[in-house]
Specification:
Chain lengths: 257, 14
């Protein structure tokens, strides 16, 4: 059987909110390592990889590797029924086609369980090669979300350019053009407010803002976001999940033919 | 303009 218990249930609610608009159906992989998922959006332009390590849960039991196919909109509907302070338990018995979500209020005076049907999902796993990125930007996640939102009112694509000056986000459209430059700023009171740019090589890449905006749904999960770029490679936009793991979004660039 | 590529162009299927 498979069972996990997460006292900070709101994390799981936030994780679902971060992926449900990008991916419709996905296989969750349960193993001794943890609870993970890899899925592409329907047009195969973006990929999301989630890992919640087993050590991060208050209780984690996985007798054998298990794949649970779930409709993420339905899963999100169920997790929305959990209170923000609730403890969430996910359970699945071997050989059944359902998963149970159990929600306990902090004072244990309300206990709910929701059973959801699992689905068979034909999904392909992609091998993500280890890469040395030419530029890595760490910045406040709310700032990145703000930039993506602001630029989408100007154009459909963002050009992200890292030079020794800093990182420039540019968009252009019918009404005009916008450039937002963020410089390295490590001298802040709180580390979560820092912007750190590690650059081996200057790199410029173009991306669809629609996907970037979808990735920023993960903003409530982490104060900082890490954006890793190399020429002609998908960008990686990573949000840590409080000491448990991460959500990584990979987005294929737009390339001039 | 630039052409949108798919992620499967960069990452191989296992």
């Amino acid at each position: 059987m498979f069972e996990l218990r997460l006292v900070q249930g709101s994390l799981l609610k936030k994780v679902l909110e971060s992926i449900k608009d990008l991916v419709n159906d996905a296989n969750f992989d349960c193993s001794s390592t943890g609870f993970s998922l890899q899925a592409m959006d329907s047009s195969h332009v973006a990929l999301v990889a989630l890992l919640l390590r087993s050590e991060g849960f208050e209780h984690y039991r996985c007798d054998r590797n298990l794949t649970m196919g779930m409709n993420l909109a339905n899963m999100a509907k169920m997790l929305k029924c959990a209170g923000n302070d609730d403890i969430i338990t996910i359970k699945a018995d071997d050989g059944t086609d359902t998963v149970t979500f159990m929600f306990e209020s902090p004072s244990q005076d309300k206990i709910s369980d929701f059973e959801m049907k699992l689905m068979d999902i034909d999904s392909e796993h992609l091998g993500i090669p280890e890469a040395e990125y030419e530029a890595i930007i760490r910045m406040p996640s709310a700032e990145f979300a703000r930039i993506c939102r602001d630029l989408s009112s100007i154009g459909d694509t963002v050009v992200i350019s890292v030079t020794k000056e800093g990182v420039r986000f540019s968009a252009r459209g019918d009404i005009g053009a916008a450039n937002i430059v963020c410089r390295q700023n490590a001298t802040v009171d709180k580390p979560e407010d820092a912007t750190i740019i590690e650059m081996q090589e200057p790199v410029t890449l173009t991306f669809a803002l629609r996907y970037m905006n979808s990735f920023t749904k993960a903003t409530p999960l982490a104060e900082q976001v890490t954006i890793s770029m190399s020429s002609d490679l998908p960008v990686v936009v990573e949000y840590k999940v409080a000491g448990m793991g991460y959500i990584r979004y990979y987005l294929a660039p737009k390339i001039e033919e | 303009g630039p052409k949108q590529h798919t992620i499967t162009k960069f990452f191989q299927k296992l």
